[in-house]
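Run log, item B.
One chain of 202 residues. Sequence copied directly from the ordering sheet:
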Amino acid sequence: PLLSFANMLGGSVCGHCAKTASGKSVPVLPRSRKSLQTQQKMNSQQVITLLLDEEILEPSQADDLLQEAILNGKSIEVLLIEGGYIDEHRFYQVIAEALGMDFIELSESEIAPEVPPLVPASLARVHQALPIAAHGNTITVALADPFNLSVAEDLRFALGKEVNIVVARVQQVEEQISHYYGSDSPRMEEILEQLEQNQKRP
């Protein structure tokens, strides 16, 4: 059965949770080493449940979309937009509002040249995390999967900085990461080296 989005984000069944900017608790799932080699994608169930709570989808439509996502391998956002259930701009706005984050149009934003080097390529690629701005000790990052708040914690630990997460169009995030960092798969050795360097900081 489909859980409400509030229960999915605020339930007490998880052993470890992170907080969104709006104070909601989001379950943080452990990640295996194997998952480090895959791109981050939005969880279909979380997206569908959110749109049900917003009354954008009917339960029967939700079931059909989840089945189609499994059968044809398309992302849930592509199926929703191609099917005319919601337009792309509204899709990302709804997600941002639910998570208490800002929605950023990367096509209308200029990333200063000194910002991308603040996040090592290995971390940017493995987390599909694009740094778009920096101010003081805070880096603003757009994620391909804004539901995965454990990424913010990973980046805070690895970089030794505060991390502000924003929502952006997934395709634009992926394209910009490829532009700034290349498309090679991150190696575990690179990630561990970055973590060791962070631990040595005073």
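Observations after the first pass:
- The CA atoms of residues 43 and 147 lie 8 Å apart.
- The chain is about 45% helix and 10% strand.
Flagged for discussion on Thursday.
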